[in-house]
Amino acid sequence: AMQAAERTGQLDIMGRIYVARSRVWALLGSHRLAWGDARAGAVAARQAGNLRLEMLALQEHTWDTRAGGVPIGEVVADLHDSLWIAETLGDRAAQAEVLGRLAVISGSGLLFVDALDQGHAAVRAGRASGNDEALDSALGGLLNAYAFLGEVEQTTRLVAEQEPLQRRLGALVGLGSTFLDWSFVSIADADWD
């Protein structure tokens, strides 16, 4: 399919193939190849003028950074580019997803003011989108920021909102991450019940 798309110059189709192949590489554990194909997909989508595909391609590799050794600066730059596209398209769900990811990255980098700002903006966008998956991602970003800060009350409030949402969505991996963040705060607070 890629050869046919290349021969006929169908950049939009090439972009979709790159993104699909990127997902396969990620499933196989070849994160560097996944990242390369996602980037190629973004370039092809940009050349084709398909902003939505470019936005999705830019986000594609952002959860696999540890396994793939992708430089965090490049990930952040791609997320900011993706956020700009989401804002241009008025896609509140995509904004929530990207801001949630940026909040986690900022918190991991000990940039707590940024993490909280991004997390709150993510939750506002997630609520405005009406999309439960986007809200879940946004809540996760804000929860992560508050957990890093050891804010027991805020973390507990967010877990109380996110847990039933994740159960309803069947997001069991996310649910595990939610409780992991909460457990650190509970241990630090010596609240083991």
Low-confidence stretches: none
Topology as a string of helices (H) and strands (E): HHHHHHHHHHH
Q: Please bin the fraction of helical residues.
A: over 70%
Number of strands: 0
Q: Compute the number of helices.
A: 11
Strand content: under 5%
Based on CA inertia axes, which overall geometry fits? elongated
Instruction: State Rg.
Output: 18 Å
- Average pLDDT for all residues: 87
Largest sheet: none
What structural category characterises the helix and strand content? mainly alpha
Q: Between the first and last Cα atoms, what is the distance in angstroms?
A: 56 Å
Write the layout of secondary structure elements.
Elements: H1 2-8, H2 11-27, H3 31-48, H4 51-60, H5 65-68, H6 72-89, H7 92-108, H8 112-129, H9 132-149, H10 152-169, H11 172-188
Helix pairs in contact: 2-3, 2-4, 3-4, 4-6, 6-7, 7-8, 7-9, 8-9, 9-10, 9-11, 10-11
